[in-house]
Write a structure and sequence with these properties.
The chain is built from 12 helices and no strands. By secondary structure, it is mainly α. It is globular, with a radius of gyration of 21 Å.
């Protein structure tokens, strides 16, 4: 995955990030030198994050991200327990719902293999607070809205600002494919409505038609096919796909 990103993406680094990276490199070099000299204190500068200076929002986000980074089928129960504990301790905070959904959503779309486990986590949270469904639906609709902009000829100033930020995420097919599988899993668990799936399928099929018309060799054609495949595969038993299959057959 890392090689894929390196090969297919171009990033410009902000000065602040560049400075931080240089600082990290400096610490690594010091650590390496200490190791070579046999100094056992080389591990001391391992923590760059100063938790005392972090806001409560940032601190919770760091804790949640740390747990989600470790998620796997083998340790799901332990991670689930940790997530629920953080949620229970902070459920009165206004930002907590959005923070949890943002983090789980981001992880799920980038690690589609574990989508079912991320959805299981969401299911547990939904049982604690039904408002989460609204956040998830808004998140899905927001993503669909961004995808629609891909083939829009002209964007308003506000649309362009939002879209430019969003483009960093949808540059590679991994993100799109992961999103398709994730919302399919959400439907299977009755967390979102069928209309969201139908809307996304229509969007991907429309994109496919436009791209084929424009340039049969466009790399995005494959992206959209993968997205359609993931959606249909995940939700095949829940939605009547006769018309869509006919349309795909014609394409």
């Amino acid at each position: 995955f890392f090689f894929f990103v390196k090969k297919n993406s171009q990033f410009s680094i902000k000065e602040e990030i560049k400075t931080n990276l240089m600082e990290i490199e400096k610490i690594i070099n010091i650590s390496n030198n200490d190791k070579q000299l046999g100094n056992n204190n080389w591990r001391k500068p391992k923590s760059i994050i100063n938790k005392d200076k972090m806001s409560k929002n940032e601190l919770i986000k760091t804790q949640v991200t740390g747990l989600l980074n470790k998620l796997s089928p083998k340790n799901y129960s332990k991670i689930n327990e940790g997530i629920m504990k953080i949620y229970d301790e902070n459920k009165d905070e206004d930002f907590i719902l959005e923070l949890f959904i943002d983090n789980i959503f981001t992880k799920a779309v980038m690690q589609s293999t574990y989508c079912p486990y991320y959805v299981k986590l969401i299911n547990q949270l939904v049982k604690l607070d039904s408002e989460l469904n609204q956040f998830i639906t808004l998140k899905c609709n927001s993503y669909s809205g961004m995808l629609k902009m891909e083939n829009k000829k002209s964007l308003s100033k506000t649309e362009k600002e939002t879209y430019d930020e969003f483009c960093e995420k949808i540059k590679n097919k991994t993100y799109k494919a992961g999103y398709s599988q994730f919302i399919g899993e959400l439907l299977k668990n009755e967390i979102i409505e069928k209309e969201i799936i139908s809307s996304c399928l229509s969007l991907f099929i429309e994109n496919l038609k436009i791209l084929i018309e424009k340039d049969i060799n466009d790399e995005s054609i494959e992206d959209n096919i993968i997205c359609i495949y993931n959606l249909v595969k995940t939700t095949f038993k829940m939605i009547q796909y006769e018309d869509i299959m006919l349309e795909l057959g014609n394409i």
